[in-house]
Amino acid sequence: MILSTIIQEAGYGHDDLILQGISFEVGKGELVGLIGPNGAGKSTTIKTLLGLMKHVKGTVEMSSYAYIPERPIFYERMTMREHIDFLYTTMGGEHAAFEEKVKNLVSFFRLTHVLHHYPDQFSKGMQQKMMLILAFLKEPDLYIIDEPFMGLDPTAVKKLLGLLEKERERGAGVLMSTHILDTAERICDRFVLVAEGKMIVEGDLEDIRRKSGLPDGTLFDCFDALTEEGEKDGLADFFAPIQG
Predict the structure, then answer these.
(1) Percent of the chain beyond pLDDT 90?
(2) CATH code at 58?
(3) Which of 21, 116, 176, 212 is most enclosed, with most CB atoms within 10 A?
(4) What is the pLDDT of residue 112?
């Protein structure tokens, strides 16, 4: 497995817990959707994986990764080209091959004309594309992507999904956090559904349909049904793993 995690609890302290009972894995070439509404605990789950939470009880094991945040992060007074050069100093490798990847990716996302500009002058979509370029240049074993479609136009979304598919063919795994369930249903192999900081259910679409009692339901319908039942039963019944 590229990623294996058991989060018994996590938060900003013993008295400020946000997550409880979340565990899942991501295998080679697999795209796993971390699904839930805004405020469900998706971003906190990712922060826990990255070691950014103050209080964590559990285990996280993962290979080399690239993290693409929901809100682009960049260094002030460094151009896009300088960000790329800095990345290369942390990676090493054959410089000519790296430069060829740079040329192809920057052209692919149509940012050649701003390569030597400061990203704080970019639109949100252009900043997000820069984050994607840096991640794909790294070629990690695992991509952790938080709300990847925010700020991207339909063409950029299609390009992103195409590149992720190629990376999966290479053997990379993907953990993608999103609340856009129709897109997630179409592209993900498996799902981790969370609400109110708790895992409701984990599995592929058929697992989730079976657990929700909706054999032909959409991911949205299943999530809605599981959440409603969870509210009645305190979510306790949904911690048990799905049996095949």
Answers:
(1) 77
(2) 3.40.50.300
(3) 176
(4) 97
> What range does the domain containing 100 cover?
71-139
- The sign of the torsion formed by the CA atoms of 46, 26, 87, 160 equals negative
Are 47 and 151 members of one domain?
A: yes
How many structural domains are present in the chain? Answer: 2
Same domain, 203 and 240: yes
206-243 burial, b if ≥16 CB within 10 A, otherwise e?
Answer: ebbbbbbeeeebebeebbebbbebbeeeebeebeeeee
pTM: 0.88
Q: 191, 208 in Cβ contact below 8 A? A: yes
H/E segment holding residue 87: helix 80-91
Tens-place pLDDT, residues 182-230: 889 999 999 999 999 999 999 999 999 999 999 999 999 998 898 874 4
In whole angstroms, give the CA distance from residue 242 to residue 70: 30
Residue 58 and residue 150 in one domain: yes
